[in-house]
Amino acid sequence: MRSLFAGALALTTSAAAYFAVAEMSGSYVSRAQTANQDAISRILVEGNQRIETRTVLSYLLVEPGDSFDSERLDLSLKTLFATQLFADVLFEKNGSELIVRVSENPIINQVIFEGNSSIRDDKLEEETEAAPREVFTQARVQQDVQKILEAYRRAGRFAASVNPTYKPLAQNRVDLIFEITEGPKTGVKSINFIGNEVFKDSKLRSELVTRQSRWWRVFESNDNFDPDRMEYDRELLRQFYTNQGFADFRVTSSVAELTPDQKDFYMTFTIDEGPLYEFGEIDVETTLEKLSTQRLKAIVPTRTGRLYEADLIENAVEAITFAAGSAGYASVDVKPQIDRDPETQKVNVTFVVDEGPRVYVERLDIIGNTQTLDHVVRRELLLAEGDAFNRILLDQSRNRIRGLGFFKDVEITEEPGSAPDKTIVKVAVEEQPTGELAFSVGYSSADAFLVSISATQRNFRGRGQSVTANIQSSQFQENYEFRFTEPRFQGRNMAAGVDLFANKTDYLRIANYSNSVIGAGLRVGFPLGNRTQLGLRYNLRQDDLVLAQRNADGTRSEIESRAQCLLTNTIGLCDQLGEKITSSLGYSLVRDHRNDPINPTGGYRISWNQDIAGLGGDVNYFKQELNATTYKGIAPGFTLTAGVKAGYIEGWNDDNIRVNNRFYKGGNSFRGFDTAGLGPRQSRVITELDVQNFAAAPTDAAFSQIFFREDQNGNATIPTLVTNDVNGNALTRLAVLNDAGQLVAAEAGATTSAYGRVSVNDDGSLSTAQLQAKGNALGGKAFAIGSVELTLPIPFVPEEMGIGAALFTDFGSVGYLDDQDLDTSTTDFVQTFGPTGFVRSQASIDDQFSLRASAGVSVFWDSPFGPIRFDFSQILASEDYDRTENFRFSTRTQF
């Protein structure tokens, strides 16, 4: 009651205006009347619909039995207006009765925005106070109009206009409608500088957030004029100059002027650069026992004679704070005392280091997380309420939160608490999409385009849980997976997950086998330290290996039995046919010492994996893999990354390694080579070709060449004969197989490839053929691949376009097979062509663990549709039987 009374006093002016109207109508008892002579017998309230009578009476300062006191009635009137519940209030005296006539303000049924396209409704709702079930008042509506206009000004639309209207409804309700005319975008025609002598305008423009309006910035908003952004640009200019040695720099004025057509702004900054400064004497003073002055001076990045940089002072404060924290001081006070000497143009700095008062964390506030729950962020913090404040732990906490991958940006700040020894830590996060729809397309020299799609949600329901429902299809694989990971199982610092998967690998055209897998797995992981993780896993799966044979007409058919397999040229795989159960147990040890989990410019990451299969099931092997990567920032925008990957798998209990458990590299794992494009490969060698009654073979032929025509996948199919005379010139007659399997004459110029040579017998038959054609990839038991990549900006490309590049080289090898897989003694293959001819071939294994290498350029674009990457490769070293590719395209989008 008292608060309402106090609020009513603020409405004196409006109430006075009301009384002037009331006196003109003659309906109000004027102050000149002798109100004190009569007492109020009854108070009647009229006109109220939604508000109860007793509520109205509770705001009055008079009651029955009181006299008609004009001052108390004035204050009662003002109090009723202060509630904002009424559009009009009128007091009337009817004999000894006081009649209070009210007109209620309507209630807002809904708020409607019309005409807005550049700013969504939910963003405008955040700006305005009007909301459903709130009281409708003209004053509040006008305030919301100004807030909407301000939102449009920030979006660069200074010509926007807002017309508020309302639609009356039953029960004194209204629909509030904001009719918006957005108008054109108000861009930035040009950004000019006055007073700059050392740096060109183009250089200074690159340091600002605001950009000049250009056609390629169609997806940006920084080229729209924003007064707040202009003020921020002033600060950016100051930071830039003070980091270039200009300690006295200042922006004397910043002006924005509309162009004559009212569509754009001219921005002009007038600056005073001042003289160039160097660092003078650098000193450190401290009373801390565990830290010596010499040690602290050694870690200070500033040096005498070096060009003055303001950021180096901040970096020195952070370095000293970090060193003090490492020495056990939870709270230190580092005060840089800066002495700038204009005559010598030197800046002398003394860092005074004292142990500050012990400060404790009073409260941890998480802000900005619209999707992620608070406890998901809190569990990554290394500090809790009541702990001693420690800046080092907060910095590590920030990296842990960023490492989740849920947020675009994470900022941790501190504010004074309720007492001098308490502080409030605020963790401000900016959500980013955590769902990912990955789409990749590759181009292969043998297989044209490859397409794959997958979907993942890494922050399911905002609880930090990872869910993958993956239906992936590509040239060689079909994957159906469901993976779920709980990062804090049972509230402990331990991750647990379950995997259900079914996939089919179709390597019939590149490795002569296909494999269907169905299985499940369990995973747990927990930290061994701040930067070390240990993961344990168990997998149970069933594999169904299918082999294929090539028919005489070039087609393929499935091999149904081991006996049939032995009659084909399939090498070392016949014992692997059919279904096998694999039961494997493994672990992963990860050491992550990167300085940033998203865009590292320093540090390293190492992972070591080992698995053993044979704890039940039909398959026995022991596998280990190493993956190590190191990062080094060379200059702004330039990062050198070097890595090595290696693996080895070996069978035990007299088991050979099945073809589906071997390592296949290429594509994304070895740029420049096709999927499974390098490593051991099966080939066919023609050992004898006999064709009787072959009229197409001339008697004057000195030798002939035999070719295998290749299908679209590079596989040899129909043999083709070319005869040559004694001078080595190809004769006009050419023989090929027709659809009936007979050798007939064909036109010259038929497409052929591969190589080989045969001799002609006296009777016209052909023999002693030697021909080798590329065959199926077999995978290897071992691999070792190194990679070096240098990311760099593309010259003359605006940074805001999000286009970058990298130079890379990949080198290494894949190889080694079991002895049984290398045995070709039983792999002779005879194929009959027609009634009188045949070709005899023998399978051959190429298993050279020799160096392969590639180099190239990658171009990546952070497009509005998701990151896109192009890889252009050039082969530096390879074997003749390898398959290569020179271009790969990949992309993914987020939701």
End-to-end CA span: 51 Å
Total number of helices: 14
Widest β-sheet, arrangement of strands: 16-17-18-19-20-21-22-24-25-26-27-35-36-39-40-41
What kind of assembly state do the chains in view correspond to? single chain
Classify the beta-strand content into a percent band.
over 45%
Helicity level, as a percent range?
Answer: 10-25%
Cα-atom radius of gyration = 41 Å
Low-pLDDT stretches are: 1-36, 443-448, 691-720, 722-728, 730-761, 763-773, 830-836
Indicate the structural class: alpha+beta
The residue-averaged pLDDT reads 77
Total number of beta strands: 41
Shape descriptor reads globular
**What kind of sheet is the major sheet?**
16 strands, antiparallel, barrel
Write the layout of secondary structure elements.
Elements: H1 2-9, H2 12-25, E1 42-46, H3 53-58, H4 70-82, E2 86-94, E3 97-104, E4 107-114, H5 121-127, H6 138-154, E5 161-169, E6 173-181, E7 187-194, H7 201-206, H8 227-242, E8 250-258, E9 264-272, E10 278-286, H9 293-299, H10 310-326, E11 332-341, E12 346-355, E13 360-367, H11 374-378, H12 391-403, E14 407-416, E15 422-431, E16 435-444, E17 448-460, E18 465-473, E19 477-486, E20 495-507, E21 513-527, E22 532-550, E23 556-558, H13 562-566, E24 578-592, E25 602-617, E26 621-635, E27 638-651, E28 681-691, E29 703-710, E30 716-724, E31 730-737, E32 743-746, E33 755-760, E34 766-773, E35 782-793, E36 803-815, H14 819-822, E37 828-833, E38 837-846, E39 852-863, E40 866-877, E41 887-894
Parallel strand pairs: 1-3, 4-6, 7-9, 10-12, 13-15
Antiparallel strand pairs: 2-3, 5-6, 8-9, 11-12, 14-15, 16-17, 16-41, 17-18, 18-19, 19-20, 20-21, 21-22, 22-23, 22-24, 24-25, 25-26, 26-27, 27-35, 28-34, 28-38, 29-30, 30-31, 31-32, 33-34, 35-36, 36-39, 37-38, 39-40, 40-41
Helix pairs in contact: 1-4
